[in-house]
Design goal:
The complex is a heterodimer of chains A (380) and B (123). Chain A is 19% helix and 32% strand. With 380 residues, chain A is α+β, with helices and mostly antiparallel strands. Chain A is globular, with a radius of gyration of 21 Å. Chain B is of the alpha+beta class. Classes of the chains: A alpha+beta (380), B alpha+beta (123).
């Protein structure tokens, strides 16, 4: 986190975080809370109770226009035209050569598509989408909306206490949502867009709220005994345990989806028709014909390996790299994500990581490292 | 015994020709939950400013530089099993290593407790 501290933008809840004793750091061009009481405690709190995260740095966009899903499919490999109203899909924004420009969540609101993109890439994403999509599709950047994530096994219980109403009588309440479903709601007359989704591996919600009401909502949530504010530090260790990649670290424009181990984002219908940016290059690697692949690593001992450390062969030659690494508060051991040669990507394979002057033994592990605890719709 | 401090937030206790070195309360607070400490090897010869140790929090790794030159004669082996000792007792039980002092003049580059306190307050 060695970003320039000059010209940092403030998020709607900046002062609120400071008043709660948060340590603020530069992130994605904003001043953001990295921790309150401490990463370890906040991490464990989120896994056992409910944590409130301010993720207002992320880009919230509406894509308006008839057949917006079909248009967005030209630059993403997700089956968006089949997405029913109220459903969310994770997909990838692809460059013309198939490189990953961002990962994003797409919701069919019934009126338009609502997209949530990464904070550090949002302006580039907007420019790219505007350049690629025909001009009848209007991209609206919701800069006056904050985004809060309430995550953890008690998130549903906490949210239920707010007495949030359906946007129209007879529509569902937030706790009726299952994982990857979303809808519009009202809280004391304030419109909220709520998704049952998140970036921790836990059950939880992401709540889009008009910026001027964000503080009132955040305060109402942390007044509950099961909810505490959580910083970016724990957000990172939680997503690592959940095996969720972080854009700009675990994948970037130089990486194709198969290499990034994101085959699940290449939907069958879209693979068969093969009509999306970079499809030739992307599909040539499917399902396992890439030279390298992102995998999870269990790290022997207690010393974490970090982003930038090198994966080496038995002669010490570089054959891959660590893209995320840290200590898992849940498992009490270090974990990492790394790119390794495809032939070394099988679970259980021994891998050596060179960090500073030391060689550290690792083993390829299945992800998620810590099981997901989502509120999935029961299969009938 | 006198205690000295560096701008890199290490403390140095000097007793005769021996120095005990650790990181300060301020440093542990900034680092947060410490999950691993890589101490130097006993017998290693360190020049002032060399990488002496690595301290790992949940989130990041930080280098600890040799506050003074000398040979490492003992490391705090308790930290291997209990790295969080650096959080709970940074300036006592959470010491990192002991070294011989090869150049006592180096101590004049360091701060005393009062100067260090003022230094931290201005950060």
């Amino acid at each position: 986190m060695s970003e320039n501290t000059e010209n940092l933008k403030q998020l709607p809840l900046g002062d609120w975080h400071r008043s709660l004793g948060a340590r603020m750091v530069p992130f994605a061009g904003y001043e953001m809370p990295v921790q309150y009481e401490g990463v370890m405690a906040e991490h464990i709190w989120t896994r056992t109770e409910a944590g409130l995260f301010d993720v207002s740095h992320m880009g919230q966009l509406n894509l308006n226009g008839d057949a917006a899903a079909e248009a967005l499919e030209t630059i993403t490999p997700g089956n968006l035209s089949a997405l029913r109203a109220g459903k969310i899909r994770y997909t990838l924004l692809l460059a013309q050569d198939g490189g990953i420009l961002d990962d994003l969540m797409v919701t069919n609101t019934g009126r338009n598509l609502y997209l949530v993109v990464n904070g550090a890439t949002k302006h580039d994403d907007i420019a790219y989408m505007q350049a690629q999509l025909p001009e009848q599709f209007i991209l609206e950047h919701l800069e006056d909306a904050a985004l809060l994530a309430l995550q953890g096994p008690k998130a549903g219980e906490a949210l239920a206490k707010l007495n949030i109403q359906p946007f129209e009588a007879g529509w569902p309440v937030p706790t009726d949502l299952h994982f990857m479903e979303a809808g519009p709601f009202l809280w004391n007359g304030i419109p909220l867009g709520i998704s049952r989704s998140g970036y921790t591996g836990e059950d939880g919600f992401e709540i889009s709220v008009p910026a001027e009401h964000a503080e009132k909502l955040a305060s109402a949530l942390i007044e509950m005994e099961e909810v505490r504010p959580i910083g970016l530090g724990a957000r990172d260790s939680l997503r690592l345990e959940a095996g969720l990649p972080l854009y700009g670290h675990d994948m970037d424009a130089g990486v194709l989806p198969v290499e990034a181990n994101l085959n699940f984002a290449l939907s069958k219908v879209r693979r068969e028709e093969g009509k999306f940016a970079g499809a030739d290059r992307v599909l040539a690697q499917y399902p396992d014909k890439a030279e390298t692949k992102r995998v999870g690593l269990f790290v022997d001992g207690r010393q974490p390996v970090r982003e930038g450390a090198t994966v080496v062969d038995d002669k010490g030659n570089a054959i891959g790299k660590v893209t995320s690494g840290g200590f898992s508060p849940t498992l009490q051991r270090p974990l990492a994500m790394a790119y390794v040669p495809m032939e070394l990507s099988k679970t259980g394979t021994a891998i050596t990581v060179q960090q500073r002057k030391k060689q550290i033994a690792c083993t390829v592990a299945d992800m998620p490292f810590v099981p997901h605890n989502y509120h999935r719709k029961p299969k009938i | 015994m006198s205690r000295y401090f560096t701008e890199e937030h290490e403390w140095v206790d000097v007793e005769g020709d021996t120095a005990t070195i650790g990181i300060t309360e301020y440093a542990q607070e900034q680092l947060g939950d410490i999950v691993f400490v890589e101490t130097p090897e006993v017998g290693a010869s360190l020049e002032q400013g060399d990488d002496a140790a690595v301290v790992e929090s949940v989130k990041a790794a930080s280098d600890v530089y040799a506050a003074v030159s000398g040979e490492v004669i003992e490391v705090n082996e308790t930290l291997e099993e209990e790295p969080a000792l650096v959080n709970s007792s940074a300036e006592e039980d959470g010491w990192f290593y002991r070294a011989t002092l090869s150049d006592k003049d180096e101590l004049s580059d360091l701060m005393d407790e009062k100067a260090y306190k003022a230094f931290v307050e201005n950060l």
